[in-house]
Amino acid sequence: MRTTGAGSGRRGSADGTIDGPTAVRAASTGFTILLLGGLLTPIAATYLPVIGRFWLLLTAVVAFAVAGRRIGTARIPALHGACAALGSYLLVLPLVLWMPGQSAGVDVEHLVSAAGTAVAVGAIAGALAGRLRDGSAARD
């Protein structure tokens, strides 16, 4: 897998399959959204009872979409978006497994479905961002 590095002098070209530095920044942003959303869960459950039940799911979808949307100069935006969103999930996974009382309730099906959701949402967001990027480049 080739990536375009920040100091490679090819920043404006789309040579790499994914844009490595942008993927790391996107995964970090997704991780931050997942972390803040998880910390706000008790408040959302208390003050927004209807939305509170789905708060973590909504937070995850938003985090994966934001991470997947940041495609930079990636040649394959859907792959880049999927990698960035999955990266954000993998960054928060140790915290999920480390929480007391939660590790017994987290099973393989949950982990695989969350990873699949990250890949799917990230790929869709990346593909849409790629269409917007390529459409605006064609108009210029």
What does this structure look like?
With about 140 residues, the protein is mainly α. The protein has one domain (about 20-140). It contains 6 helices and no strands. Helix 1 packs across helix 5, helix 4 (about 55-70) runs parallel beside helix 6 (about 110-140) and helix 5 (about 75-100) runs antiparallel to helix 6 (about 110-140). The radius of gyration is 17 Å and the shape is elongated. About 35% of the residues are buried. Keywords: Membrane, Transmembrane, Transmembrane helix.
Please state the overall shape, judged from the principal axes of the Cα atoms: elongated
Sheet/helix structural class:
mainly alpha
- How many β strands by DSSP? 0
Element-level helix/strand string: HHHHHH
Biggest beta sheet summary: none
Mean pLDDT: 85
Beta content comes to under 5%
- Oligomeric description of these chains: single chain
Q: Tell me the number of helical segments per DSSP (H or I, 4 or more residues long).
A: 6
Q: What number of structural domains do the residues give?
A: 1
Keywords: Membrane, Transmembrane, Transmembrane helix
Transmembrane segments: 44-66, 78-99, 111-130
